[in-house]
Amino acid sequence: MALELDRPDLARSDNFIDGIWQPSGAGAHYDVCDPATGEAIATVADSTAADAQAATVAAHRAFDSWRQQPAAARAKLLKRWHALILEHTEDLARLISREQGKPLAEARGEVAYGASYVDWFAAEAVRSYGDIIPAPVGSKRMLVTKEPVGVVAAITPWNFPLAMIARKIAPALAAGCTVVAKPAEDTPLTALALVALAEEAGLPAGVLNIVTSSREKVADVVGAWLEDARVRKITFTGSTAVGKLLARDSAPTLKRLSLELGGNAPFIVFEDADLDAAVEGLMAAKFRNGGQTCVSPNRVYVQESVYEAFADKLVARVQSLRVGPGDRDDSQIGPMINARAVDKIERHVQDALARGAMLLTGGQRLNGGVTTGPNYYAPTVLGDASHDMALAQDETFGPVVPLFRFRDEEEVVDAANDTPYGLAAYFFSRDVARIWRLAERLQTGLVGINEGALAAESAPFGGIKESGYGREGSRYGLDDYMATKYLCQGNLA
Q1: Which of 138, 251, 386, 470 is most buried, by CB atoms within 10 Å?
Q2: pLDDT tens, position by position, 342-352
Q3: Residue numbers annotated as active site
């Protein structure tokens, strides 16, 4: 592997099934490429349905013994895993930056963020309380208990290769479930390293299993889990289109589903807002990971009376961003994940310009100097955007900010909600009455009020409408991995 690590053994390339690192049963492998250069940096197992089935067998076999472990014992193992993740922050950050492209500073932040979920759910493991229900007659005792749902299949995206898998695996293990996991084909190295550290923490064989696959084999691997009744839950972060397929194909076995899907987040700036704070909030929300986040603002609405002033301030900030490879200390925006991503960004920008948008800054691929490579795109601001543009309907998933003018609150609320998605929304205002009105009227699972950074391990993360269902993080995050059981005991006398 063309990457220096303090712990070279974290650079894994095989599947981890039933406590053993092993190649794909078919012996196939595929290349993992650096998005900054397009060059292969590693090869990993290209798994088949048989590998996925072997992982399921191991997880199912390990489930009874793992669920019977005292919650305190499961918490202790998670705490040990958390400590190892933090201990190896630098190696994990290098892996993230190299295979995903984000700057090292952001990658280090992702390690801390992902680790926080492991720590959080270690504590939540011992707080999985039940209830005693007052019985209608004195001869009965009525109780409610919580039990792990069973084997969980975790399918994760490429944009946060450590955080997304950590915040799925940690609650599953805390609840007493066992796991089979498949990381995104573009970014498997970080997930494999994370599992290696879980093994080092002492996780029993079969409790956590991971298989990697190329884009061509994904349907085989995931299909094996969808068809298998022993897999009782699917947790997925990714596109709405794929989420709908998972919901459809899991129906024959009625699996539990947690789906964190696409978004089309509005960001609203009212005339009474602190414009400097709004610009900084937008920068934090939009340009994190180069705009490649599901909660990234996709439509920025600015009230007419402050539109020009806000646009000028925003353009100045965006022009100050430094684009470059993730391993450069001064890089603030790295390469996009692959050429398909850049192609989509370019299509959206060209469509917007053809439909009357004004190019305020950026608007082109970069390939020269420190940005020599196939996947760089300039941070871009477009003025006078309209809802007939592709970028108003579909996530751009890149460093592009379209500015929309609006007249009044009623107009902008209608526009913000005019989408099938409902993951995140943001607005800036100093009007207290308006703050509560909008917080209640915006149709999303997350709302940022004078704030651009929403996520935290203690907060419930998830959407409504076609952005999915289920919640990750917080005290609610354990519920998605547990079943509620009612016990009714009659008089034994």
Answers
A1: 470
A2: 999 999 999 99
A3: 260
